[in-house]
From TrEMBL, chains A, B:
The lineage of its organism: Bacteria, Bacillati, Bacillota, Clostridia, Lachnospirales. It comes from Natranaerovirga pectinivora. This is Magnesium transporter MgtE. InterPro entries: CBS_dom (IPR000644), CBS_dom_sf (IPR046342), Mg_transptr_MgtE_intracell_dom (IPR006668), MgtE_N_sf (IPR038076), MgtE_transporter (IPR006669), SLC41_membr_dom (IPR006667), SLC41_membr_dom_sf (IPR036739). GO terms for molecular function: magnesium ion transmembrane transporter activity; metal ion binding. Acts as a magnesium transporter.
Amino acid sequence: MKDIIIELFAQGKYSQIKNEIGKMNVVDIAQLFAELEEDAIMIVFRLLPKEMAADVFTYLSFEQQQYVIESITDKETKNIIDDLFLDDAVDLLEEMPANVVKKILKNTTEEKRKLINQFLKYPDNSAGSIMTIEYVDLDKEMTVKASLEHIKKTGVDKETIDICYITDKARRLEGIVPIRKLILNDENVIIDDIMDKNFLSIKTDDDQEEIAYLFKKYDLVAMPVVDKENRLVGIITIDDVVDIIEQENTEDFQKMAALEPSEEEYLKTSVFSLAKHRILWLLVLMFSATFTGNIIQGYEDILETVLILTTFIPMLMDTAGNSGSQSATLVIRGLALGQIERKDALKVVWKEFRVSIIVGFALAFLNFFRIYFFVEGADFLISLVVCLTLFLTVVLAKLVGGILPIIAKTLKLDPAIMAAPLITTIVDALALIAYFQLAAYFLGLV
Amino acid sequence: MKDIIIELFAQGKYSQIKNEIGKMNVVDIAQLFAELEEDAIMIVFRLLPKEMAADVFTYLSFEQQQYVIESITDKETKNIIDDLFLDDAVDLLEEMPANVVKKILKNTTEEKRKLINQFLKYPDNSAGSIMTIEYVDLDKEMTVKASLEHIKKTGVDKETIDICYITDKARRLEGIVPIRKLILNDENVIIDDIMDKNFLSIKTDDDQEEIAYLFKKYDLVAMPVVDKENRLVGIITIDDVVDIIEQENTEDFQKMAALEPSEEEYLKTSVFSLAKHRILWLLVLMFSATFTGNIIQGYEDILETVLILTTFIPMLMDTAGNSGSQSATLVIRGLALGQIERKDALKVVWKEFRVSIIVGFALAFLNFFRIYFFVEGADFLISLVVCLTLFLTVVLAKLVGGILPIIAKTLKLDPAIMAAPLITTIVDALALIAYFQLAAYFLGLV
């Protein structure tokens, strides 16, 4: 479809484009725009059916949104801004340069401008910054029939009418009623009798992580947002929550790989910004690896006497790191999904201890034979020292990996920060100390 | 609330429980059950309002579901099974032991039994295994008024009526219409005139990853599932997709931490099963780390001559691993979210190359001064060798980390498998070879 439009454009068949494009999904049209040349963008944009223009506009990249606003007339700007949902308008204003912001605000109604200003004050990632104000509100005295008529009259602009909200004179939220209940009930039934008074709501300054958690736990599709006086100020819908979930996951992936989290898409991020998000943690970890180096240096005489011990250092360090991050990942993920809580700390330790005994024994057992029979210069005692270290390392790594994320959570730190890289550094050091102590003891090198 | 019920139960105030529990959310009631003693479960379960019993039942753990089914009468079983949505009934049957399955099937209607059997044939994680068959279907000749009456008559059992589906005589899907459109349009409008004929649909054997991708891309709340003849067989709703998204993310987290993926919750997984999911990759990585060890062994004479070089091995290996997994994580995540595609391979390489030059230079520069001025026994040449290696290592690690996931994708392997642990092993080896070669050259040790 995309290719057909591009083909039609090359042939100058604009009226045909006008016909075809109306049948496309707005998301696909926005993707089409990403492939158009600058001069083509405005021509095709003006061919869009009027009711689709604002919808397509919200799916464009910020660069293209800027280009469109800069190119259109004041009247066209007004039309688009009028059709934008408030949360999309706010997102737009936050990203545009001053001249574009000016043009947008000039073509916004006084009322909408006030609302936008209010929205801009909510903290990043709070319920207030995510919510939309386009919802249906009803009065509890209304009948089903009156409610449906009210929705018919006012509902066209609402982002979701699947759930309606019932407020009192002071705009305090009293109940919710899904639209299906309106349809399934008799015309004369009073809303008060069918509305759900046991609803969940969130406050404007609640964090998006908490919101996502509630949506998942209770299988919600929408949730009302109230202010401190319990007045309804907006709603959050599931499609925004899906984006939040992916964003929170991306953040965890990044933290667990020693990256400072960033919301930007990889291909759209500048080289400088990518580098900036990586350097800090690499420096921290590089300097902490110095301690591991110091441990090796501290046992130089042992290495000098039995140089073959050096050969096994990478294997011990890698296994330590991998064992630790396996445990850490499971616990971090469990914490993120609410399946593990702080009170489970002892259960986790006990579980990791038993798992590590099995895993450690299996690895050490297999490795012993490999080293004893196949590594030149490794006698029984050296094989024993390496494998005892391996066993001990796996046990320590799994205990540290299992407990550190929970400790982080208790200290109100993000458990993901405690993941792989930091745990690797710690268990590397533990592994080496165990290694040299065991070597000194068994090989009589003290 | 939970504590109040437990308190009331201890006091034997059952009628009060009956009052209070009806006001609770079914998810919270299920959590309450998780804290009840076995003998209390059945008493409280029977106090539930009839219309809530099946709902609460679906949120119980499999152990508790089994206990409930084993404890109730045939008639009670029939009531619950009748009220269960088909997809929940199928999930239940898949987890129950033979005797419970028998009891359930005995109390299921002939018609539902047939449907269940059909569902059990769909492959795991396919659209067919996730979909529900409770949807509203309409005829395109119907008026809005007739449609609303039809929904009123049949809609009570439907999992979602927010979107209605229009099929022809052969049950082929012709269009969709959101319920809001029915409400916003005039009573006499014909469905054919307002239904959306450009809808997205999926096939029964499409994979859940693809489904989640489409929901996210097009901001959907429900999607029709059709068979090979384009006949409507079910729908998938956003609440199931949210679970799929989290499951796919969990899988990626696990793969990236060298775990064989598992869907079970950590605290509910046996020690043996946890160990099993960890051992394989640890073994593979342990034995591949042997190669790293062999590299060290191959350069033993160099180490013997300048033993201080050993000190820097952990730092070089750790930085290599961390640099590589930073890049790999960003690319793997970009691939998973559809923000990076195979055709972007060269863009990624070029980006990683430039980033690695900046990062590598910064790390090497800072480290040079630390080593030269603060590490005893490290002269100018040794500091230079270490820092040149560090620079080269960062560049190599970032290139390998950036490109390996894309190669995996091209080979139809899961990019996440290529992540941190495997990349660490590869870049460790590269780092050590670079180290010893540079040392041999600059320190004249060939």
